[in-house]
Amino acid sequence: MMKMHTVRFLPHEMEISVSDGETIIRAALEIGVHVNASCGGEGVCGKCRVIVEDGTVEGGISEMLSQEDQDKGYRLACQAAIKGDLIVRIPVESAIDPSVLKMQAAPRRTAHITEMNFEELKEKGLFVAPVEKKYLKLPEPTTQDNLPDITRLISYLKLKHDEHRLEVDLSVIRKISSVLRQDDFNVTATLVRPVRDVGKTRIINVEPGNATRRSYAIAMDIGTTTIYGQVIDLLSGEVLAEHGEFNGQISYGEDVISRIVYAEKPGGLERLHAVVISTINDVLRKIVRHSKVNPDGISTITLAGNTTMTQLMLKVNPRFIRRSPYVPAATLYPPIKAIDLGMELGDHVTALVYPAVSSYVGGDIVAGVMGSGIYRSDELTLYLDVGTNAEIVIGNKDWLACAACSAGPAFEGGGLKFGMRAAKGAIEDFSLDPVTLDPMLITIGNVRPKGICGSGLITMVATMFDMGIIDNLGKFDRDLDTPRIREDNGVCEYVLAWKDESQIDRDVVLTEIDIENLIRAKGAIYSGCMTLLTEVGMSVQDIEHIVLAGGFGSYVDLEKAMIIGLLPEMDPTKVTFIGNGSLLGARMSSLTNRIRKDVVEVTKKMTNFELSDTPSYMDNYIAALFLPHTDMDQFPKLKARLQARKNQQPQK
Amino acid sequence: MMKMHTVRFLPHEMEISVSDGETIIRAALEIGVHVNASCGGEGVCGKCRVIVEDGTVEGGISEMLSQEDQDKGYRLACQAAIKGDLIVRIPVESAIDPSVLKMQAAPRRTAHITEMNFEELKEKGLFVAPVEKKYLKLPEPTTQDNLPDITRLISYLKLKHDEHRLEVDLSVIRKISSVLRQDDFNVTATLVRPVRDVGKTRIINVEPGNATRRSYAIAMDIGTTTIYGQVIDLLSGEVLAEHGEFNGQISYGEDVISRIVYAEKPGGLERLHAVVISTINDVLRKIVRHSKVNPDGISTITLAGNTTMTQLMLKVNPRFIRRSPYVPAATLYPPIKAIDLGMELGDHVTALVYPAVSSYVGGDIVAGVMGSGIYRSDELTLYLDVGTNAEIVIGNKDWLACAACSAGPAFEGGGLKFGMRAAKGAIEDFSLDPVTLDPMLITIGNVRPKGICGSGLITMVATMFDMGIIDNLGKFDRDLDTPRIREDNGVCEYVLAWKDESQIDRDVVLTEIDIENLIRAKGAIYSGCMTLLTEVGMSVQDIEHIVLAGGFGSYVDLEKAMIIGLLPEMDPTKVTFIGNGSLLGARMSSLTNRIRKDVVEVTKKMTNFELSDTPSYMDNYIAALFLPHTDMDQFPKLKARLQARKNQQPQK
Questions:
Q1: Which class for A68: exposed (0-12), middle (13-18), buried (19 or more C-beta within 10 A)?
Q2: What's the pLDDT at B17?
Q3: Which of A167, A198, A329 is nearest residue B173 as measured by Cβ atoms?
C-alpha cells in the first residue's frame, strides 16, 4: 500500500489525500486550488510560492526564496515533496473575495480503472479454458501393442482424461515420435478447445515430460500508432510481461487513410504487411524475453486492431475501406497459423484475429466491448474510444449500436498552433487565477513548456469557459484587462507562457482557432453519441454508465470533459476507464472461450451507423458546435453552476 | 469396338477369338498351343513356321521360308498378323500322340478389369460431391447496403443456393474484393463439403464470372518407384490426363527401408521430402498441361502411398517404421494446404492424404480397398497387391484382416541370374514342346531375349512343373534327354536361349536357384493369405473373389499363378484386376465424400497382423515352399489333372 498524507489548503479550507512524495503543486491542481506557475514545474519561475504552515516536506527551497521567507515556511510548490500531513497556505497577494475562490475549477476527476478479475470470471462461469495441457505416462509400444504414436496418445487421452473428438495438427505428427522417446513416453499434450460445442478438440503440441505448468498465451493490440503485446499465464490469468512499440508502418503514413493509399501502390500491401509483422516480432521477442517463459509453452496469440490494421496484418488489400460505400473485404477471419503470417512463434501456434463490425468499427472496438463486458451489462452504457478517430458504442446486453467519426487530431495535440503529443514539455494541466488571469502550468516531465497536448487543451478550454474567459462560441472576452489576451494577425490568443519562460524561445499561446478545432472535435464525438441515441429513440439522460478506452481515458479530466460538452454530464463515479480496450479484449479471449463464442453474436448484434449517411448527424453536429452545447438542458448541472456564478459575479 | 477374328489351330482343334492385327504366335500362346520360337518374336530364328490353311494374314513371309513352302501357306507365326478368321496348322514334325497335345498348358487367362463407373456410383447413392461451384450475380454495394464483400457472398449463397454453415479461407478473403469487381459482382464460389454432416462447408475459392464448368481434382499415387497423377473432371468423372514419373527418391535407395535409412541421416528427411515433392510437381505440370485445364479450377488433390512414402511426403520422420515393434508416427493425417507441402497448386487447394493401417499396410492399400469396394462387398474377397512387398487384405463388408509380407524382388525380375524388369527383351511369355522340350519365347518388344521378367518366370516355372520338367521342390528332372537341361557349377539350369539366339552373347538360362527364389516369394504371399484365414478361422475354399492390384495383376497368367501356388485355385472369372489400386482409391475420394467418410471406419475395421509375430505364419510358410503346396488338397483341380496325366503318361 502506498503511504498517503492529507494536505489542507488555506485560505480555501480544502483538503485532499495524496501519495507520499507527490509535489504540493500537483496536489493543489488536483483539488482545484490555483497556484501561479509558468515554468511547467521546473522550479525556475519562482512563482509557485506557498507557505507550509505545518507538516514535513522535502525540497522546495530555492535561491529565489530569501532566507527570511524560507524561515517563514515559504517553499516552491513545484519542488516540495509531501512527506507527511500538511497545512499549506496559498499567499493571496491581492485581497480576494472568498466567494471567488469557490468559483475556481472543480477538483480534477479522472475515471476509475476497472480491472478484469480472473477469479470473478471463474465465479461467473465465464471461464472456459481455451487451451489445456494434459500430462500422460504412456506405456511403451511392444510387438503386441504397436499402435501408431498418435493413436497411442489419443487412446490414453480418452482413457485417462476422458477426452473425445480429438484431431491432430500435422506439426504434432511431425514431432510425436521423437518427443515420446525423449522421456520414456512421458508426454504433455496441449489441447485447444473448440469454440462451439460441436467442434473438435485439437492437439496442437506435444512436449516431453510434464510441461503442464508452462501454459501461456499472447494478447496483442495492433494499433495504427503503437503495437502492444502481453504474455499471459493461462493458469493464473496474470500478465507476465507487457511491451509496446511504435508500429513500423508510421513511416508510410500517420493515419489509416495514408496507409491504405500506400497499400494500393505496387508492392505496397506486401511492404506494409511485412513491416507490421516485423514490429509484432519485435514486441514478441521483448515480451517473451522479459517474461522469461519457455516460448514452446505459448499456445495462442490473439490480435485485435482496427479494420485497416487487421487487413494489412492479414495481407488483405484495404483498398475499398476508404472508398464510398466503405466496404471491407471481411469482418470475420478464420484462425490462421501464426507462422503463416510470418510471426516468430512455434509452428503449433494459432493466431486468432478479432472480428470487426465495419470498415471503421474494427476488431479493436469489438475487443473493447467484449473486454469491458458491456455486451453482458444491464445498464445502458456508452463506450468511447477516442483518438484521431473516435469510435462510439452504445447499448447493453440486448442491443448495441456503433459508429465511428473523425474527430481530427486535436485530442492528440495535432492541428494546434503549439500542439504536440503528450511528451516532455507538453502542458498537461492548467489552472487560472480568476483575478489576475495568470496561469498555473504543469508540464509532462516538469520542464519549461514547449506546447499543448490533448489533455492540456481540454483542461484549458474548460477552465477558461467555466471562468468566463471564453464564451460558448470559444471566443475570448476581449474586454478583460490582461496582456495575456491579445490579437495576432487578426486571431485572438491567450499567452500561456512568455518567451523567456518557454523552452522554445517564443511565446506559447492558445488561439481561438485552436479552440475552434477542439469544439469541432468534441462536437463530432458528442453528436455521434447523440445520433446513435436518436436513431434508437433514446436520449443522453438514459445513459447509465460510460466506459472510456484508449490513452485518452487515462488522462482526461472528466469534469472538464463534461464542461466542454465532450462527454454527457454524469456522476463521475459512473465513468470507468479500461485502458487499452483492444488489448483487454485480446487478453480476455486468451483466457476464456466464452468470449470467442459470444463475439460472433456480438458483432452481428452491433448495428453500424455510417454517420455521414445518417441525416440527423449533421443537425446534431451543428448543435454541438458550442460550449458545452446549444441545448444547455443536456448539461443541467453546468447550467445551474453558470447561472449561480452569473448571479454571484463581482461586478467588473 | 475392336474387330475380332476367330483362329482355329490344327491338329489341336482349339479355337480362340483375337483382336485384328494380333500375331499368330501370341494367339497360339494365349490358347496354349506350342509353337517353337527362340528369338522372342523378332523373326530371325525361323522356327515358328505354321501353315495358314484358310483366311487372311498380313506379313509372315521371310527368306527363311522357301517359295514352295510359302505357296503351301507357310508363314512365320511371330510375323503374321491376323486379318480375318483363320485356320492354322501347327506342323508337328514328329508323329506325336494327340493325348500329349492335350497335356499342354492350359490357355492363358488374365484377370478381367473392373472399371469404376461414375453413373453407377450416382445410382448407388454413393455420390456426395466433395466440391461444388456456385455461380451468383450479386448486387453491387450501396451506401444503404455496404455489407463486407465476404458477408455479401455468404448472404447470397444462403438466399439463392440455400447454403448454410459456411466458413471462409483466408486466401478467399485476400482475393474477394478484387474478384467481385472484375466482372460486375458476378462470381463463382467453390464450396468444399464437410466429410461429416456436422462439419461446415468451406468456401475455398472465388473466381470472376461463371466458372462452374471448370471443376477439377487431382488424384495421385505416391509409389516407392513411380508417382502417377490424374486430372479428373468433377462434373463428368472423366480422367482428362494421366502421367507417371519415376519417384526422384530412387537415387536414395530402391526400397522403403533404404529410404528410411537415408531419412535418418542429418538433413536426409528434408532432402527426401523435397525430392518427392519435386517429382509430384513434375507430374502435376505434365498432367495439367496435357489436360489443358485452367489450374485455378483445380480444388483438391488426393494422395495415396505406403506409410513410408506418406510420411516422407509429409516430412514426418519414418525412423521407427523399420524398427521393431514397427510403430508409425500416425495413420490418420489432417487435411493440409497443398502449398504448405510445396506443391505447385493454387493456395486454395487442400491436400487429402489417405490414412494407413500400420507401418506396412499403408494408404495405398487402404485406397485400393476403398476403390475396389471390397469394404462394401458381401463376398469374402482376397485383395492382393504384389510388388517387392506384398500386401494382403481379406474380408468383406463385415470384417477386414490385413498383413504385409516381404516377397523379395523375384516378381519384379530381381535376384535371378538373368532377371530383369519388364522391359524390352524380357521373356514375358513361354511355352514348351512336350516332346522336344524346345521353348517358345515371346519377349517384350518382340526382340531377341535378354533376360526374364516376373511374369515370364511364373509362366516358365508353372509350365515346367505342369509338364513334369521340374518336380514339386522345383528341381529339374535330370533324367530328361535334352541338352537344354545341364549343370553349371553344381547348379542345375535350363537353357532358354542359346548364346547366338540371345541379345547378350551368352546363353540365357533359368536356374534352380531362380526357381527357389520364386517358390520362396510365392510361399511368402500364399502363407500370408493362409495365416490371415487361419487367424479368422476360415480356409482358402471360403474365398469367393480375388482382386489383384498393381502392375503384377495386369500381366500375371492366372492359371499359371494357381499352378505354382501363388494364388488359391479358383474360377478365373472370379478374379478381377483393378490396376493401380492406390490411384483408383485416390480418384474415388476425389469424386465422392462417401469414401472419405467411410475410410476412417474402414481403417479402424482393418485388423492388422504382424506376420512375423503370428505363430502360424512360419508353419504356413514352410508348407507353402512346394509346388503348388504341401497340402495338394488345397489345389483340387490341379491335383486331379496331375493325377490324370500320371495315368496317361506315355512311358519314356
A1: exposed
A2: 92
A3: A329
- Reduced to 3 states, what is the DSSP secondary structure of residue B168? strand
DSSP string, B178-242: HHHTTTTTEEEEEEE--SSTTS-EEEEEEEES--TT--EEEEEEE-SSEEEEEEEETTT--EEEE
Q: Which CATH class is domain B128-208?
A: alpha beta
Q: Which residues of B touch A146 (CB under 8 A)?
A: 325-327, 358-359, 610
Interatomic CA distance for residues A368 and A389, integer angstroms: 15
Give the C-alpha separation, A18 to A3, whole Å. 8
Domain ranges in chain A?
A: 1-93, 128-208, 218-353, 371-407+521-622
Instruction: Report the range of poorest mean pLDDT among A123-127, B192-196, B323-327.
Output: A123-127
User: Cis before residue A194, ω within 30 degrees of 0?
Assistant: no
Per-residue pLDDT tens over the stretch B210-233: 999 999 999 999 999 999 999 999
Give the Cα separation of A549 and B183 in Å (integer). Answer: 42
The hierarchical CATH code for the domain A1-93 is 3.10.20.30
Q: Inform me whether the C-beta atom of residue B177 falls under 8 Å from chain A C-beta atoms.
A: yes
Sign for the CA dihedral angle at A364, A367, A373, A378 comes to positive
Give which of B146, B151, B169 to mutate to test A binding, by max A Cβ within 10 Å.
B146
Q: Pick the closest to residue A203 from A180, A172, A179 (CA basis).
A: A172
CA proximity to B281, closest of B339, B344, B232, B229: B344
What is the count of residue pairs from A and B with beta carbons less than 8 Å apart? 130
Distance CA A300, CA A298 (A): 6
Farthest CA pair distance, chain B: 105
Q: How many CB atoms sit inside 10 A of residue B184's CB?
A: 12
Yes or no, beta carbons of A142 and B325 under 8 Å apart: yes
**CATH T-level topology, domain A218-353:** Nucleotidyltransferase; domain 5 (3.30.420)
Asked if residue B219 lies in contact with residue B232, where contact means CB atoms within 8 angstroms, the answer is yes
Residue A101, pLDDT > 80, answer no
- Tell me whether residues A168 and B141 touch, CB distance under 8 A: no
CB spacing of B320 vs A177 below 8 angstroms: yes
For residue B138, the chain A residues in CB contact (below 8 A) are none
**pLDDT at site A415:** 86
ipTM metric: 0.86
| Tens of pLDDT, residues B365-407 | 999 999 999 999 999 999 999 877 899 999 999 999 999 998 8
User: pLDDT tens digits, residue range A287-326?
Assistant: 999 999 999 999 999 999 999 999 999 999 999 999 999 9
Integer Cα distance of A586 and A570 in angstroms? 29
What does DSSP say about strands B216-222 and A186-192: parallel, antiparallel, or unpaired? unpaired
